[in-house]
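Ticket 4471: requesting a sanity check on a complex prediction with 4'-deoxy-4'-aminopyridoxal-5'-phosphate. Repro inputs:
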Amino acid sequence: MSEKELRDLKAELAEKFEAYKAQGLKLNMARGKPGAEQLALSMKMLDVLNSQSDMQTSDGLDCRNYGGPDGLPEMRELLAQMMGLQAENVLVGGNSSLNLMFDTVSCAMTHGLPGGKPWCLQADRKFLCPAPGYDRHFSVTEYFGFELITVPMLPTGPDMDMVERLVRSDASIKGIWCVPKYSNPTGITYSDETVRRFAALKPAAPDFRIFWDNAYCVHDLTDTPDVLLNLWDECRKNGTEDLPLFFASTSKITFPGAGIAALGASEKNLAVLRNHFRYQTIGPDKLNQMRHLAFLKDMNGVHAQMQKHRALIAPKFEVVEETFAEQLTGKGVAAWSKPNGGYFISVDVLDGCAKRTVALCKEAGVTLTGAGATYPYKKDPNDRNIRVAPTYPPKTEVKAAAELFCLCAQLAACEKLLQNA
Ligand code: PMP
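Returned structure tokens:
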């Protein structure tokens, strides 16, 4: 476009923008939260326990009392199946997998993991952060004083050439954050080759760990779901079963904040972590485990519940994708992901335009995840990536928010191009 054409377009977009502002929208697509209708899907779970319920586990434990630090046997079995592990390798925790990840890093910091000294004794400790990635992962390791190293995310997963090169040569690198299925925010699932390369890693640090956060393992949105190769099986073939630490939860199956989280690991890793948790708590909330078991029953129950979630949220993803396709295709101002599952659409706007796009949306009443949040230290080197979370608002509002997003991305691009003209 000529400078004149750009100026005219900017004026036209600015006028539309003012009209949006006048509507006084108040929408939020910032965090991956289930919408109210999704939460309603699990309300019956609250009916399954009452004063008449049998409170004994299959092995005779009274769930109202202390005990059962590893979790109810049936809950370990169910979460193990969900995560592709064996029940004896799974510990059931409290309500949050992020909490388990934090505690695992904390344990490694103060007491060390098998094969290594406490991480706090390594002054220049580093952690690999595939980006765009999950901001709360990065924050945990930033909080514990790690230098965060950005690893580019490719369509196949993290850039494994870089991962292999770095971990082979640098013993101060202690781990990597991974969301292997329907990655937050890019929505991609790691390829079989990527999983095999993870299982075959030869880190210089004996206490290097892969934090395999399978938060979206059953969160499909289509009839052709992605299939993730089982890292545990691959590690066992390679004799590297101490490398991975597995995490998952029912946060986006039942209730976020009131679900059940689990950690899976080799016997050696579990011995250290179990001991650490022993000091922390006399045991998890077994009544919530009972509720979950009575409500979900087995993996068929989990899949049936996920189908109901899908029916509610897939249309919201479709609205965003349709709106983006209609309003942004061929304009060269944005590229966006089309995930088969998970909770996010990842958008790359024109370089240097993400912060401005998010600020414009905010000005007109739509809150998005802060620009930069998907990168270590919240600094996107290209100021390009924006995470869109369409699940929380009602579908009509998602449409309005997506339209405004398209307008703001174009307006920000016009401004940028005119600055450079
Ligand atoms: N991991 C990822 C990748 C997530 O996206 C989220 C939630 N947004 C979590 C973990 C948090 O899980 P939990 O509720 O089990 O702490």
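Notes from triage: Residues 3-30+303-420 form a domain with the Aspartate Aminotransferase, domain 1 fold (CATH 3.90.1150.10). Leaving this open until the requester confirms.
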